[in-house]
Design goal:
alpha+beta, Phosphatase 2c, domain 1, Lipocalin, 5-stranded antiparallel beta sheet, globular
Length: 486
């Protein structure tokens, strides 16, 4: 077989930054990035996101091993691949050869690491203490690869084709010149990736869980850049539309300033995205057609003038609202009356929707130690806390709709909706209790020793014991603290 020749040159750059939340907690960057820049070989980008936390306490090693193995395997495949008849033929050849070889190389590497560094008692004790699952240590004994668990996203130029492979979460986005620019996702979606659930290199089904897309870079509507990111980047935006605008922004910067300039800006852009958005580690690789980098492709000029000058980071209109401004007047009345605001509901102007729902303001609850987002359909998403990314499904609230209030207090999540106050314990197997209210509720807050509900007319506060859910007191509020314009 002979090596396929690419009719146009591509170059790749990238960066990986430690997440804002990991900086505060002292956790390492669990993402990893490997690049073949395209100077002597066709460009390759590999991004891996280690699962982190417990029981994947060695996932930083797993992610670095993943990208190194991926580049080695893909380069060998590209050097010996014959000229395919079609993109579909190449896709089948890739799926038949590359995933199994990557998985074998990764498994051998982490198994050798485990042989040289057996799990320490301290590591296993942390798993027992911190893990949500009572069976975590048993699962780890049955499958020690879980400790190294990681996802993997690859984009590689193989001849005239862009080959995209993905296992688990993360994103690959292509952008082609046009007015508007042509934005696409070449890899099929995996419906199993919900909340913090992901396929992984550590699972027995890993080889068959890889998804693949192949794009002809010389065909009609062909891409000019490809952007590969770990999920911490997309999770920094309020919705998919805001995230997908980042690709055209980057292409505009490449057209206007060149790829080298973009490479210099990437670390700062990614740190800003983490700080303003997900708080997670973020990794990005960008490959672009050389003719676009050299400014010979002028089709990008139409939108290059409209790009965000501060870079493709969440802006005030499309990033999670870190100020957590409360606009529920009744809830404000509760806080004013009790003098306490411990994680009361905050209706942000734009909170990230982890379930991919349309752009909207989602109720979220923020306290010193926890941040939860209500995504609708009975689902709570842990944005910050012991297990970021965890999804808690509450069947009793599946048809509850948008609540009047959500709050965190006394180690529980409190949800006020449709005349009922719900208490959700997310610490283990989810447990739910509730109390029906005699008055129409309008707001919720957590007091020093009780849970406080304001009625919709803003005239009454109902106090509930957080342990028994018994109503302990009923206060009348002055008219001036009730709801009103402004």
């Amino acid at each position: 077989m002979h090596t396929m020749q690419n009719q146009s040159r591509w170059r790749a750059v990238g960066a990986s930054v430690r997440g804002d939340s990991h900086r505060r907690s002292g956790a390492p960057n669990q993402d990893a990035l490997a690049l073949v820049p395209g100077d002597m070989w066709d460009a390759i980008i590999a991004v891996s996101d280690g699962h982190g936390g417990q029981p994947s306490f060695r996932s930083d090693f797993g992610s670095h091993t993943a990208v190194a193995t991926a580049v080695k395997v893909v380069r060998a495949f590209a050097q010996h691949a014959g000229e395919p008849v079609s993109a579909e033929e190449l896709r089948r050849a890739v799926l038949a050869a590359i995933p199994a070889r990557i998985l074998q190389g990764w498994t051998d590497a982490v198994t050798n690491d485990l042989a040289s560094r057996p799990f320490m008692d301290r590591e296993l004790e942390e798993v027992r203490r911190d893990s949500r699952s009572a069976h975590a240590t048993v699962e780890l004994e049955e499958n020690p690869l879980i400790a190294y668990g990681a996802t993997l996203v690859i984009a590689a130029l193989v001849g005239r084709y862009l080959v995209c492979l993905q296992l688990g979460d993360g994103d690959i986005v292509t952008v082609g010149a046009g007015d508007p620019p042509i934005v696409a996702r070449p890899v099929p979606h995996d419906d199993r990736l919900v909340g913090n659930q992901t396929t992984s290199l550590c699972l027995p089904t890993a080889a068959s869980d890889f998804r693949c897309g192949v794009v002809d870079t010389e065909g009609p509507g062909s891409p000019d850049i490809v952007v590969v990111t770990s999920d911490g980047y997309a999770n920094s935006f309020v919705d998919d539309d805001a995230f997908l605008q980042a690709g055209p922004d980057i292409f505009g910067h490449v057209t206007q300033h060149g790829l080298d300039w973009v490479a210099e800006q990437l670390p700062g852009w990614l740190e800003s995205a983490s700080r303003l958005g997900s708080g997670d580690d973020i990794t990005m690789g960008v490959a672009c057609r050389v003719r676009a980098d050299e400014g010979k492709r002028t089709a990008g000029d139409a939108f290059a003038k409209t790009i965000t000058q501060s870079g493709p980071v969440p802006r005030s209109a499309d990033r999670p609202d870190r100020s957590r401004r409360a606009v529920a007047v009744a809830a404000v009345a509760v806080a004013a009356a009790t003098g306490v605001w411990m994680g009361a509901v905050a209706f942000g102007s734009s909170t990230p929707a982890p379930d991919g729902s349309p752009s909207q303001s989602l109720p979220s609850v923020a306290a010193a130690e926890e941040t939860w987002i209500w995504t609708g359909s009975g689902t709570l998403y842990e944005l910050r806390g012991k297990d970021p990314g965890r999804t808690v499904v509450v069947p009793e609230l599946r048809n509850a709709g948008r609540p009047e209030g959500v709050a965190w207090g006394f180690g529980r999540i409190w949800i006020l909706t449709r005349g009922t106050l719900y208490r959700v314990d997310p610490s283990g197997p989810v447990s739910v209790d509730h109390v029906d209210l005699s008055s129409v509720p309008g707001g919720l807050a957590i007091g020093a020793s009780d849970v406080v509900v304001a009625t919709a007319d803003g005239r009454t506060l109902l106090h509930f014991d957080p342990t028994t859910l018994d109503q302990t007191k009923k206060d009348a509020l002055p008219r001036s603290t009730g709801p009103g314009k402004g």
